[in-house]
Amino acid sequence: MSTTYIVIPAYNEGRVIAEVLRGLREAGYPHIIVVDDGSEDATSKMAREAGATVVLEHFLNRGKGAAVKTGIEAAKRLGADAVITLDGDGQHDPADIPRMQRLLDEGWDVVLGSRLKASLGMPRRKILANVAGNVFTWALHGLWVTDSQSGFRAYSRRALELIDTRTDRYEYDSEVIREIRRHHLRFVEIPIAVIYTEYSMGKANKQGLKNGLKTLARMLLSS
Predict the structure, then answer these.
(1) Gap between the Cα atoms of 186 and 155, Å rounded
(2) What is the pLDDT of residue 206?
(3) Which pLDDT does position 196 carry in this prediction?
(4) Which residues contact 98 (CB under 8 A, 6 or more apart)?
């Protein structure tokens, strides 16, 4: 029987991380790795108390990409056959995970959760920002996807062994698209539900215009 690990990068998610973990455990996912990316709050403490399998901590805030990579490396060492990544702010619905797992079982290497395939209720500014990110990702890496910035993804063991990224922040998500193309990985996109809350929409570290421009600059430098 295959073992799937859930990897959650988290930065200052102490208010909600316990609820995220509770939802995953209630949905039947016991193998959960939380990577606290230099939080200034009680993210690690709350994650441990909520039953995370492993809680890892970055001493400094290194970026979402660095946190995801730390979690994936830990999952590989623990013998994961597959890894599913999702954000720590409660935006992603565990009900979408079974379909991701089924697609991996069918032989897909990577499953990309796409908010733009089911964008009902998605703020217009986020739609426009995501489309812009998709265009830049396509221009740099030559592969079109409908949500290049999504953090809700599933990877087979083969994909985990082949994908090799260098960037540490939000540009990491686009760099994975480059790796999919470079290694000819079989990928599929599926629509995912997104739970927008006042908390998640108000987070200062989310991608806004300023952060989006910084991400684009780093994408250009790393391409």
Answers:
(1) 10
(2) 56
(3) 78
(4) none
Strands (E), 76-209: 82-85, 110-114, 153-156, 187-191
What does the pLDDT read at residue 20? 97
pLDDT per 10-residue tile (average), the chain, 223 residues? 92 97 96 98 98 97 97 97 97 96 97 85 80 91 94 98 93 95 98 83 58 53 57
Domain housing 93: 4-222
Per the structure, how many domains does the chain have? 1
pLDDT at 209: 47
- In which region does residue 156 sit, left (phi positive, over 0), alpha (psi from -120 to 50) or beta (all else)? beta
Q: What is the CATH classification number for the domain harbouring 216?
A: 3.90.550.10
Output the DSSP codes for 39-105: -SSSHHHHHHHTT-SEEEEESS---HHHHHHHHHHHHHHTT-SEEEE--TTS-B-GGGHHHHHHHHH
Helix (H, G, I), strand (E, B) or coil at 122: coil
Alpha carbon of 169 to those of 50, 78, 222: distances in Å?
26, 25, 12
Question: Whole-angstrom Cα distance, residue 129 to residue 137?
Answer: 12
Rounded distance, CA 52 to CA 169, Å? Answer: 23
For residue 112, give the 3-state DSSP assignment.
Answer: strand
218 C-beta neighbours (distance < 10 Å), count: 20
Return d(Cα 147, Cα 125) in angstroms, integer.
Answer: 14
Relative orientation angle of helices 172-182 and 209-222, to the nearest 10 degrees: 40
